[in-house]
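Re: your question from the hallway

Yes, I did run it. Sequences:
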Amino acid sequence: MIELLLIVPLLGTFLSILFPLKKVYTLPLWIATLHLFLTIINFIITCNPNLALIAEIFPGQLSGTQIQLVFFFKGYITFDGVSRVIILLTSFLFFSVSLYLYDYFKYSQIKNERSFIFFYLIFFFSMNVVILADHLILFWSAIELSTLVTAPLVLTFKTKKAVEATWRYILLCSIGIAFALIGVFFLVISLNNPSGVIAEHLSILSISNLTFSRLYLVANKLDVVWVKASFILFLIGYGTKMGIAPMHTWLADTYSEAPTPVSALLAGALTNCAYLGIYKSHQILIYANAGEFSSTLLKIYGLLSMFVAAIFILRQKDIKRMLGYSSMENIGIVCVGTAIGGVAQYAALLQVIYHSLIKSSLFLSVGNIILLYKTKENHKIFELTKKMPKSFMLFFIGIIGLIGLPPMGTFFSKMILIFESFLQKDFLTMIFFLIFVIIVGCSLITHLIRISFSKQEIDIGESRDNRESSESKNVGEENFDSRFFVWPQYLLLISSIILTFWIPATLYNLIKH
Amino acid sequence: MIDLQVGFLSLILLLNILTLGSSRLKILIKNVAVAGTLVSILPLLFSYPKIAAASVAFAAVMMLVKGFIIPGLLYFSIRKVSDPIEQVPIIGYHISVIIGIVFILLALLISSKLSLHHLPSSPTTLTRDLLFATAISTIFVGLFLLMTRWKAITQVLGYLIMENGIYLLGTIVVGHMPYILEVAVLLDLLVAVMIMGIVLLNINETFNDIDTSLLVARSGSGSRSGMESESGYSKDQQND
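Structure:
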């Protein structure tokens, strides 16, 4: 059953080659709908308390109180805990973005739709593998694949800036992720305790069955020095992919130059996949009784990311880069939450969910803005309220969500995080956290007000750089404020608001672990 | 057999030094091809008495990919590139060679300090230490090339050399990885080179060169001449 979640996107990839060219733009939507449907079914089956009935339908898949739906790739993929939440989220995001693509293709400058859709679907496939992977090497290889296949998507418009951003993205991320592979090898070394006494559990564990779930069981018998070393390498590797501060240099460029729907998925979905790597390796360290070490590192680099984001967001002139740096701030928040642990870990996962929904919707709204104004620069966007009322509203609610003002979920996740750090008497983290959150919030509000309400300025040399940075065809005054240009954002924002006030019990249990 | 192992390893070390010292892209690609072939054969040498048929087949596939397909792709992509000689690197060739030797010494020092005696594979202390040292120094050399060379293609080669080093490190500790995963990792490498090649051609098409200093210059750091100043962004916006 779970395998279907991998097979469907892969099938879509093949279909994208064979599909008739005129209809190919409908393909992502079909695949996304099917995938979302399957994900929900799997989710419901695995969460259903009525196990007897399910055991009858799928004999031999019941282990304890949990039903395991993995048939073919046992030992490689799994469907439990956080990955269940993340895959539901990813599938939903992909569905919304595919909905947006439906109209976007008609007005955007994407020349080769078929190759775009090919890489778009294989990107989705790789994300699914990342989320479901249990084996460390499979996880690594899927993360690497997700980097590689997004590069052509970032390159779509082939402007100088896009080429530059792609090169930086692919090179930095590939090198970073290579370090994570060294980390996996270090974990294998740590299986052999230096005292020469190999524990009984460990002797059956080798590279061929090195899964996260098995590692958690035996982690307290591992050689701690090597485990710590491997965590550093995981932090470098998956941190590069996620965009943690010293390794973030690709992030803003890539988010800015990619077509907006791709940016939405990069920021909303791919970041979570990379976060899974950090989260799981942190989990290993906790089980190996070295949680202090990884917490300290995550806290430092999380705060550093927030600091860098706060600095660069302050006077940002490119609307998409602004969102990119705000993503970095979110990455910092999530890392700090993970590091503090306890209830803050719960808050971090909530933050991941809310942020993904809000940030994707924001990128899509910004996509509308860019299509209309044909520019990404803040100071050339004006009177949004009059020109695109619906997109303005969505943009407004999205920014409110990013800042974390009360009606949105991010308020609660940040608040829980601050309370928890207060309770743990971690005042230094709390103060820095608050300062950075406030700086980012204030600058976002300033940008929001400027973009939404300012009058048109007299512009000199306005059209100089137009074709370079615009994604849209010159089709005159099109209506970018209706149909599929706004529905996905409604969907995303409404679901994020619903999730703020009502978290289904099963979801709550999963997050709470 | 030990002689052969040591011979292969020292050959890889020498190739690293040669790679650091040469400026012609074609020679660099040939070096990487030879190193890739050697790296593919090495796991067979280390499991010499009991070699499975599957591992021979996999080694052959890997040799094909690392020794022929990837260098072939790179060769194909530089045929279209105007200038097949590396610019003056950030750190000169002579100093690079010396640094390469320092890397080897450093790696030998590290491997002698680490207690790897309990690892399952590799029989003697000499080959194990040398293998570890080769792996570490190859990774260093790859990173060094990535940092100090301007041409995009040299950076791809640096990435490949680094990947070779990681694979060598893997052969010490891994023992036997399931083939499905080995294939996945190898496929990743192949896809990486193909996509990097696509981007490379795009860089060449857009900038008329594969010199990444053009890219670097645009983002405001380490500016070099030869850059069109037509970017619509003001200077203080290039903030990273």
